[in-house]
């Protein structure tokens, strides 16, 4: 603070106010923060690129500076002659038919995909791949706290609290029983019941006292965080005291990989061109990927005795055209829709929905919306025959219980439920039209339409005024 | 990467999980179950071992009771903490812990409830499967109350009287959710 006092101050008030301002933590104009800030990673910097692509903006045009036009012109011409490459790095992944998923194993790609748009999930972490950090910490190689450990700590505290509460409740019940036993004894001894009166009231008072104790205890319950939302602003996670002890003599083999959902992989490779997916060492084109993902989304071990690898080679050519309401396509259309609008879309089975929508990403805020994908058959094709009508009705219909169940879970987790209807077009894949089974992905996606429908539960007490 | 032509190196290194599955499936090429179901069990076992620090993990293909083929491979293992405490057992434990705390004369002590972990059955499934009560009961009929372990000298928990499995559901984003499923109705747990 001494430096501030020495400054030539315009107002006499400033110097006397210094202590006060310092206490509030207002940064002074010398730029030195007064309060030691908690050290936490700068998420805005780490995740500064919302997508794993490179952009080349034109220089700014300043109207009163005619030279700026020249700079714009030079940039335009040079970019036409030598078009810049985007994305500079194409990540690589492979499709694992044994687990029906897409794995990324290169550590640099894993970091990049997570940092630039929150793609994928660490297979052994809740979202950000941090298994290795956790393992190092477990073995005392690194002093840091990951969000998983913070959650474990919180759970321990909650369990301890519940045990204490259970004990108090138990004691209250036993006290009540004793009081009742005494009452029964008294009434059996004394038929007139004159002496029974004080005993009873005494017993009741005692139990009430106990119950109020329990209430007091439950008041002090730590604020219940609805669910393990993915790594969010758990600040403690990032009070990282990275006393970077060198990695010990033995090296831990990283058991974790980044796993992309099929929607993410298809968006990265088809829409952004930032990912190459291979299967059995062979790079897959967009239409091959579409066939592959559509086939594996309907593949179930229970229906066929073969493995996916045995089923796949036949699907593109013989008789197995992609249904227009294939589950992968419906989900991908919704994924593409929201990703294109700038939302970070993440799959989430833990909230019993198809997707969660984050504003900037899970590191910045909790998800705002929970998305449920529903097919809608309003095209006239689907009501042409009675069989078709009945089948569509079966696929479309959900009962009220279903809606209440889904909405109830989201209400507890403070998310708004969004029902997203995908208009299913008439069948477009006639099966084996062309020899190689090539598909025009853009044309297919154009046939689908998306309708959003946000749902909220109205409670009179909360929504008054 | 089993079907890779010789001499062609994959451009992307397979993940440790993928290596494990491929290696184990090769070993048990004449497996009695579908290799797909076996891969699923391996995936769940890998997750339990490394993410949740389970120990003593085994994959069972045959029923420990009848020695018949199980509906699908099941996993058994020992979790780091107890997963389920019967409500009556909890009352008993709380009483003991409270007595102990009073004996130590220090009211500030926290209630120390010590429960030893118990081995559990795990049923690996996929999210797009449809499960019915009949199929679940087929699984329950084939398993014992406690999975068979190497050391039989441990005293069995007197409160563990109904069969239970941990239903592991894998999603395509690698999330595995675990739910405890009991064979029949049990006394509700205090929350």
What does this entry show, briefly?
The complex is a heterodimer of chains A (465) and B (191). Chain A is α+β, with helices and mostly antiparallel strands. Chain A has helices at 2-6, 12-24, 43-46, 67-81, 107-115, 131-138, 147-189, 196-219, 262-272, 286-298, 308-311, 327-340, 386-396, 400-412, 441-446, and strands at residues 91-96, 101-104, 121-122, 258-260, 275-279, 282-283, 344-347, 355-358, 369-376, 416-423, 449-455.
Structure description:
Chain A is globular, with a radius of gyration of 31 Å. Chain A is built from 15 helices and eleven strands. With about 475 residues, chain A is α+β, with helices and mostly antiparallel strands. In chain A, helix 9 runs antiparallel to helix 10 (about 285-300) and helix 9 (about 260-270) packs across helix 12 (about 325-340). Among the domains of chain A are: about 145-245; about 320-465, Trna Endonuclease, Chain: A, domain 1. The relative contact order of chain A is 0.10. The model of chain A is unreliable at about 1-35, about 190-250 and about 315-320 (pLDDT under 50). Chain B has four helices and five strands. In chain B, helix 1 (about 15-25) crosses helix 2. The longest helix of chain B is centred in the middle third of the chain and has 17 residues, at about 85-105. Chain A: Its EC number is 4.6.1.16. Chain A: InterPro entries: tRNA_endonuc-like_dom_sf, tRNA_intron_Endo_cat-like_sf, tRNA_intron_Endonuc_cat-like, tRNA_splic, tRNA_splic_SEN2. Chain A: It comes from Westerdykella ornata. Chain A: This is tRNA-splicing endonuclease subunit Sen2.
